[in-house]
Amino acid sequence: MSSSTADRFIDAAGRPWVWIFRRLRSMPSQRLGETVRLQQRAHERAMVLIRVFYALSLMWTVHQMGAWPALREVAFIDPQWPAAWIDESDPGSGISLILLIFGFASLLVAMWPTSRILRALFTVGMLQYLSVKFGFGKVNHDYHAWLWVSAILVFLPSGSRMREPSAPDRHATLAVLWSAQIVVLFFYTLTGLWKVYYGLQAFTNDRISSFQIDGFSLIVAERLLSTDQATLLGEFLVRNPILGWLLFNGTMYLECASLLAAFRPRLHRLWGGGLILFHLGTQLAMGFTFVPNIALIGLLFMASPWAPDRPPIRSVVLDLPVVHLVAKRWRALQRASAAATATAMARSTASTLAARSGVSASER
Questions:
Q1: Which residues lie closer than 8 Å to 117 by C-beta, 6 or more apart?
Q2: Fewest CB within 10 angstroms: 95, 108, 166, 298, which?
């Protein structure tokens, strides 16, 4: 394939994505100088964010080390497929190797996060460790999003391209980080869509549905009874089903529309705060939460490199999903109405001038 043919193919393949991006994004127009300045600032913030990500990864690794001696002494394990190479007759040797690689990779990448080799080694080590950790019949997905983000960060520029970046290098770094934001919010959107699907399915089949007025309260009550635990807000929500219904539907809006927030920097901090409150709410109402996800949302969105420091409240409100669409349609209708009015006035003026010209000609 020739260079020109390849360029045309790439251009044709990219057109749908450009079309989608232009319609999903919402950000103020900027001059070239302002764009360059903001890119430099965003890159500086991104570098801090990346270093904090790997520092927190090291903290989590150290926190996990207390369970490592018992993990090395297991007599039987059924690891997930990435660690299926472990010898079933002697799992301790394979597990010890995984722990060694994961532990050293966590330390080294926290010290030198600009090294792509170390970032890749940490991702592989974490994948292997989670495959072993959940090799006993139950899989928790607390760190799945963290693993995905670490895998995406492998594609960051390496070495001096991060320490002394050119404009293309800064663009590449920010593009990778934005990809991580999209993936994380995509997980939340999928979660919300599945909840909506199963809620509607239960509603249509005459089962307890979370969309019923008392549906969420019944779900909370069932959770508290099955786990035999008390939570700070569980009983309160059970006694106040309307409040629970409102909170649940608000959460569905938050989760289902999460992917759109990635394209609107003015929403990053607001959406990050909303998702963190959602996780805190599950802890207060149902007794479980995902601490790694709270840390990840805090890093990627509360500390988003693109989020403006003081966005106008009106602009933030107009960027909200659904509100943004309604406002966009309203502006389009206003422009069409203004254009129609201008056209009618122009035609009226032209008719008046023509009539006057006709009168003047007859008088002569």
A1: 158
A2: 166
Which residue type does 344 have?
A: A
pLDDT for 230 equals: 85
> How buried is 273 (Cβ within 10 angstroms: 0-12 exposed, 13-18 middle, 19+ buried)?
middle
pLDDT single digits (tens) 198-228: 988 988 888 888 888 988 899 899 889 888 8
Query: Which long-range contacts does 32-40 make (Cβ < 8 Å, 24+ apart)?
Result: 36/167, 39/167, 39/170, 39/171, 39/174, 40/170
Best CA proximity match to 96, nearest among 73, 116, 117: 73
Specify whether the backbone of 264 is left (phi greater than 0), alpha (psi in -120 to 50) or beta: beta
Task: Determine the pLDDT at residue 1.
Answer: 47
Tokens of 184: 């994380």
Residue 73: pLDDT over 80? yes
For residues 235 and 224, give the distance between their C-alpha atoms in angstroms, rounded to a whole number: 9
DSSP string, 206-262: TS--TTSTTHHHHHHHHHHHHHT---TTHHHHHH-HHHHHHHHHHHHHHHHTHHHHT
